[in-house]
Every structure is written in C-alpha cells, then in structure tokens.
Amino acid sequence: MRFVIVTGMSGAGKATALKTLEDAGFFCVDNLPIQLIKRFAEIAYDEQIQVDEVAISVDIRSGRALSQLNTCLAEIKECGWPYEILFVDCSDETLVKRYKETRRTHPLSVKDGRIIDGIKKERELIGFIREEADYIIDTSNLLVREFKAELDKIFIQDMEYSNFIITIMSFGFKYGIPRDSDMVQDVRFLPNPYYDEDLRPLTGNDKEIQKYVMDCKEASVFLEKILDIIFFLVPNYIREGKNQLVISIGCTGGKHRSVTIANAIYERLQKSQYTVRIHHRDITKDAIVKKL
C-alpha cells in the first residue's frame, strides 16, 4: 500500500502531479478536507478495500484547518499507516510569471492585491509541511515532461531520489546572464569555433565542435576544477536547506563553447546521486538574429 500526500505552492504543479499519479493507477482525491484525512487513510488501509496506491492533495485551500495537518499526520503515524509527502515548489519569480500569463489571482491575494504578497503569505503558512516532505520537486526550471519524468522515477519506477536538483545552463553573454543563476562560469578563454567558417554553423551539440573545444588542454583542466567545486558545494548547500543549484556556463553567443562545456559537466554529473538537468538557453538565437 502506498499513501501519497501531494502538497506545495499554488501554481507550482500540484494538479499536474495528481493527474500524473492518477494516470499511473493511483486512486486520487483533490483537496481532501483535513478533518477527513485520517478517516480516508483508515479506509484506504482496510485490507478488504484492496487499494494499492492512493494519493490525496492538500494545500492552502484548506484554510485555517491546514494548521491541524501535523496533528492529523501524527495520529495516522500512531496507527501504523505509512505515508509519503510530495512537496511541489517553485521560485517566487516563476510563480508570479505563471499567474500573470494565465491571468489568475493567487488564492491569498486580497482584492486588487499583489500576487507576490499572496505567494509570500502562502510560503509562511505551508512552510511546516515542506520541512516534513519526503520529496521536494522544484519546477522552476522544469518542462512539464521533465516534471512528469521525475514523478515517474519516484512513484512508478521506485528509484532512489535526491531532493537536490542541479541545472546546467549554457548561455551567451551578449544576451545577458541568466537571472536565476547561482554560479556563473565564463569559458570565453577557450578557442572560439566561430572563427572557423566550416564550424560556425554547428553547435556544441555537434561532435566536431566538441572535439575542437575539448582538444584544448585548458578545457579538460577547467572541467575537472569546476566539478571539484560542484562536489564540494552541493553537500554544503543541502545542509543549508537549499534544494537546487543553477550553474550557468557562458561564452560570447551561447552556441559553441558554453554548450560543449555544459554538456561535459552534465554527462559527468549524471553518474552522481543528484538529479541533473541541462538547458541551452541561447543555442538557437544566433540563427534567429541573423534572419531578422
């Protein structure tokens, strides 16, 4: 029997998570009142019911009753009924953007109030749940398919999951430094394939560019040093409660050198215990600008 409690920030992806679990065969209930959770767990764990996988959604819509959740979960634990908590999180900046794009109002924003005020208030009210979560997925930099893939790993494939997500992002300095960067590394010291007319149309995803860049001995040295820094920093970030790290690798246009190095870092980190994502922000912008 698997009993999953889905919670988190409004707009972060709870509905997607619950729908994904439902498609995977979970019996799902959205916005179950806090007062009914224990009774629901009792029914779910009844051997005669024969339900193997259950998921419920609990969030800020519970209102004042949300403060009773800890007591409710403690009672469930005393009964010997195991449960797991999935907390879906997202950065304030991304949440504001999502609300503006959908023209929705945050449930805690007063009439004509600012979205960010509602988000901050919500974080204060549900912070205690995040501290108890078994899984924390930050969807700030995840595509929907990537988010679903993470859920599949945890609840379908039953793989070991780390709540810490590392995003490797390549970018071009001429298009600006990514605002959500935690660490920025400049690789413009490496030889630039742009000045070779045969290589110019290619990107760091092509083997010819990768060979050109990595044949430079400084590239290999840089790669080892940046990996040493990452493996040193991540455990310390985790101890401080951080759940994601965005490492931005930049070159002039974000097409050749930065993409090559970002790919190399991503490949090495995939062998680690952490969840790793890669994003090439500016890889196609050079072609778009030229067309204009």
Model description:
The chain is α/β, with parallel strands linked by helices. The chain folds into two domains: 2-156, P-loop containing nucleotide triphosphate hydrolases (Rossmann fold), CATH 3.40.50.300; 165-291, no CATH class. The chain is 42% helix and 17% strand. The chain contains ten helices and nine strands. It has helices at residues 14-23, 34-44, 69-78, 92-102, 115-132, 144-156, 207-214, 217-239, 257-269, 285-291, and strands at residues 2-8, 27-29, 53-57, 84-89, 135-138, 165-172, 183-186, 244-251, 275-280. A five-stranded parallel sheet has the order 2-3-1-4-5, sandwiched between helices. Strand 2 (27-29), helix 2 and strand 3 (53-57) form a beta-alpha-beta unit. Helix 4 (92-102) crosses helix 5 and helix 8 packs across helix 9. The radius of gyration is 22 Å and the shape is elongated. The mean pLDDT is 90.
Give the strand order of the largest sheet, numbering strands 1, 2, ... along the chain. Answer: 2-3-1-4-5
**Major sheet details:** 5 strands, parallel
Count up the helices. 10
- Strand content bin: 15-25%
Helix % is: 40-55%
- CATH C-level class of the largest domain is Alpha Beta
Number of strands: 9
User: In total, how many domains does the architecture comprise?
Assistant: 2
Order of helices and strands: EHEHEHEHHEHEEHHEHEH
